[in-house]
């Protein structure tokens, strides 16, 4: 079995060759969120702007022996103000990524999705887990397990495209998307199979671009070549998927946590579809997972810079 965090380590090693991404860190007011931001800065993954109560951040750093050095701190009175100011820094062009600190996800995302003052674009916002599964040869993207509860077909178009764009940012040689359901055949009684078939046809019509897409596929058909062989499935995706698109949040959350707790996987979180990548970490995340989330955001930010340069050129 591949050693733990091997794929994440390769990701971090590559990110160290890139310019540090200026990142507004909203309310890093506990040890794990503050240490994650500071360590990511030490590795050159991000250049954090700490947004929160200055005295509280300093006290936490002192209590846990976290060396802040000359990292900039934007003083705010409480978590709601921290979220609002961090988003403002992005809107002002002073930060190219946003990172969740110790505040609740809903508190940060509520500011992000505000129509006038948030970070929304024409693309629907969605979440991806970038998973390092020791027993699987490729890095896996799982979407959406954290934001869109019961996405419509129109929502899934953006969810799939966000994941494809992420695959390219992560330098996947080929993005292979499996639209998951409980079976590999289209069954009118199982709506997720019909939506999977529609998404595949939309890809054929170039309404979704940049990847090879197939579905519906059951999970075993998506990731096990042995299963594909037994079931005689002819597909360029089946058995070798590196993007797994789930029917709804419940399925995605259970899949990601099953991989984490039963297969020893790590799951870096990223939110896409906003003006900048959003690093969405959990209080339970390990330091390697937090660093990997910063690395993923750095790659997304780099891909956006490259695309902007191509557009100008």
What is the element layout, followed by pairings?
Blueprint: H1 6-15, E1 21-26, H2 31-42, E2 46-52, H3 54-63, E3 73-75, H4 79-91, E4 97-100, H5 105-112, E5 126-132, E6 140-143, H6 153-169, E7 176-180, H7 191-204, E8 212-217, H8 219-223, H9 225-231, E9 243-245, H10 249-263, E10 266-272, E11 278-279, H11 287-312
Parallel strand pairs: 1-2, 1-4, 2-3, 4-11, 6-9, 7-8, 7-9
Antiparallel strand pairs: 5-6, 5-10, 10-11
Helix pairs in contact: 1-11, 2-11, 4-5, 6-11
What features would you describe in this structure?
By secondary structure, this protein is an alpha/beta fold. The mean pLDDT is 94. Strand 2, helix 3 and strand 3 (73-75) form a beta-alpha-beta unit. An eleven-stranded mixed beta sheet has the order 3-2-1-4-11-10-5-6-9-7-8, sandwiched between helices. It has two domains: 1-120 and 274-313, Rossmann fold, CATH 3.40.50; 130-271, Isopropylmalate Dehydrogenase (3-Layer(aba) Sandwich). The protein has eleven helices and eleven strands. It has helices at residues 6-15, 31-42, 54-63, 79-91, 105-112, 153-169, 191-204, 219-223, 225-231, 249-263, 287-312, and strands at 21-26, 46-52, 73-75, 97-100, 126-132, 140-143, 176-180, 212-217, 243-245, 266-272, 278-279. The longest helix is centred in the C-terminal third of the chain and has 26 residues, at 287-312. The chain is 44% helix and 17% strand. The protein starts with 5 loop residues before the first helix and ends with a helix. It is globular, with a radius of gyration of 19 Å.
């Amino acid at each position: 079995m591949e050693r733990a965090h091997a794929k994440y380590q390769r990701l971090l090693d590559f990110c160290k060759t890139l310019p540090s991404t200026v990142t507004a860190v909203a309310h890093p007011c506990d040890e794990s969120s503050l240490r994650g931001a500071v360590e990511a800065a030490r590795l050159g993954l991000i250049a954090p702007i700490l947004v929160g109560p200055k005295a509280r951040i300093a006290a936490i750093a002192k209590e846990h022996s976290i060396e802040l050095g000359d990292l900039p701190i934007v003083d705010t009175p409480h978590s709601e103000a921290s979220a609002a100011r961090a988003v403002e820094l992005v809107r002002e062009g002073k930060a190219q990524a946003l990172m969740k600190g110790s505040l609740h996800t809903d508190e940060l995302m509520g500011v992000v999705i505000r129509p006038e003052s948030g970070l929304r674009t024409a693309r629907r916002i969605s979440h991806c887990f970038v998973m390092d599964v020791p027993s699987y040869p490729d890095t896996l993207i799982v979407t959406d397990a954290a934001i869109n509860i019961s996405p419509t077909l129109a929502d899934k178009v953006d969810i799939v495209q966000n994941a494809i764009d992420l695959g390219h940012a992560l330098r996947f040689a080929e993005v292979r998307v499996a639209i998951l359901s409980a079976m590999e055949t289209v069954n009118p009684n199982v709506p997720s199979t019909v939506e999977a078939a529609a998404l595949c046809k939309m890809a054929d019509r170039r309404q979704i671009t940049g990847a090879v897409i197939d579905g519906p596929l059951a999970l075993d058909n998506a990731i096990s070549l042995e299963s594909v062989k037994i079931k005689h499935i002819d597909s360029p995706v089946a058995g070798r998927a590196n993007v797994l698109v789930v029917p709804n949040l419940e399925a995605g959350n259970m899949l990601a946590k099953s991989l984490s707790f039963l297969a020893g996987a790590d799951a870096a979180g990223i939110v896409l579809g906003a003006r900048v990548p959003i690093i969405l970490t959990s209080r339970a995340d390990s330091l390697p997972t937090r660093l990997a989330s910063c690395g993923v955001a750095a790659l997304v930010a780099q891909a956006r810079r490259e695309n902007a340069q191509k557009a100008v050129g």
